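Team,

Forwarding the record for the chain on the shared tracking sheet. I've put the sequence and predicted structure together so nobody has to dig through attachments.
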Amino acid sequence: MGSLFGTEMTKQWRRTRTYAAIGITILIPIIFAVAIKANPPSPGGGEDAFTYLSTHTGLFLPVAALRFMSRFLLVFLVALFAGDAVASEASWGNLRAMLTRPVGRGRLLLAKVESATLLALIVTFATVIAALIAGGLTFGWGGLTLGGVAGRVAASSGLPGFHMSAARIIGNLGIATGYVFWGLASVGALAFMVSTMTDSPAAAVFAGFGLYAISQILDAITSIGVIRYGFPTHYYDAWTSLFTGPGPTGDMLRGTLLQIPYVLVFGAIGWWYFRRKDVLS
């Protein structure tokens, strides 16, 4: 199993797409840091507070970068890696040849899942690490201690006591990054499921991204009521409470558990379908 996974990862590292995806997740936080340094944001509450507070400590730049990139780019990349996993082999005409070797379909799917998961994990953490380095070099790696105007901005964002130590910020960053990664598990699972059913990688990618978009749109319709709580992205932004409150909340726990049934259902359907699929390409 290890050799099969190694073969899959070697194949991924030979693709320009992989380097382009990682490069983009590294480049954007750097541009973000330069832009904030050249044009410091005005004090303001809400989501803009993360960007403003980045000028007081570079440790908050990853928070702002993760907040913005998790809304589109990371969603797309997770769907890309998962949706491309099996469908790309079929589109190239390699899938049937791969299955003629003494490799079970289940083992092949597991290796594909592992490689797609690892790549998604890499781009997610690359975003935070790049922003952490760029932010630290630009604004320093100190803790956050605020007063005056900056203190009022912190108050509008709910930052407790206007002070957060560097160790606490870094620890919360690790939790937040893992939460964002797992929060996209349903997107990746659906994209992978569709990837086992089609020869078009684009169809699988857009299916995964479509789940995110539809979930976000429907979740914004408050008249739907409690049904919204079951949408896969309902608790997607709950991680921001790590930086606007005392720590992890019940919504983060609910958001973590909510992904499990989606992953199990989509994964089981894809597994069942592929093991019975008549592979022609």
